[in-house]
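User: Please predict the structure of the protein below. I'd like the answer in structure-token form so I can feed it into my own downstream comparison script.

Assistant: Understood. Taking the following sequence of 344 residues as input:
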Amino acid sequence: MTLADLAKRFGVSASTISRALNPATAPMVAEPLRGRIQDLARRCHFAPNQAARSLVHGRSHSIGVILYSAYGSLFFSDYLTKIHWGIAAALGEHPGYGSKIVFLPRGKSMSDIDQEIAGSGVDGILVSTICDYTIERLQDLVKTVEMRWRRPVVALNIGTLPRSQISTVSFSNRQAAYDAVTHLLRKGHQRIGMIYTENPSPDIHERREGYRSALADHHLPCDSELMVPGKALSQGGYEAAIELFKRKIGASVTAIFCSSDEMAFGAMKALGVLRKRCPQDVAVMGFDGLEAGEHVSPALSTVEQPFLEIAQTGTHLLLDLIEGRQTKPAHITIPSRLILRDSA
């Protein structure tokens, strides 16, 4: 059934039907006609032609979501689920809006992605900055979208971009790490090792800074021998933990702070091989808040990255920018939280 069919059925103009079916203009059509039109449209599964609406109104009522691809990672699966839930929850409060997903696969050039955005017809864009690309390249992409395509952009999980008017929604990696290490210190641990992902990302740098700051604020030295880099995922955590306890300082370590949950899983496996009990001999604290942490033994204490809240808040902010309710860039920080289980 088309708009014209509905207009013919009720003996009114197509514009009256359009107004009755648009939540923003429905009050302009008097009852009971409005109710009868909406009821028949529901029963006939009428859906407005979004392409036609875009031509008329200059808007597609859809947002673009640019995500990274890192398949094979527990973190990616958990992250992607939370991002989708957050976006869906926000869009559920704004009837008529949808979303389009654009992935950033390895090896794809920024110019290709730029062209995809140009042809997408979306009204605004959420950009996830957790991906294989460097922060600098992502900043270039975001700025290009902002300047060339004149669409609102909200960057998720990144701090304020220098000399940019782009809105951001993020959390503080430094504060989250500081809180995690402070918890271990308050439990009485004086020798706390850190194993972290061996990459140059700002997130990992900030987590190391949070670790160092917590030790400094408790008047404890930060011995470089306590910090061991490793490859990502569980195997990297296993190898880094083995290396930590091989060092002379390893005999005094009673807790380990890990820069990711997957590294923490590997560290806990290493403790088993070394015949050390967790948490009685060595406590382990992760970082991510993966659901899988509930199902290892002992259950993993961790920092939860608030991706669901970041995505939900970012989507609301983007829609406010699109609709004109927000006219200036906003920079929102979502608090993280500790999930305390059995391992620490």
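That's the full token string. Residues 173-304 form a domain with the Rossmann fold fold (CATH 3.40.50.2300).
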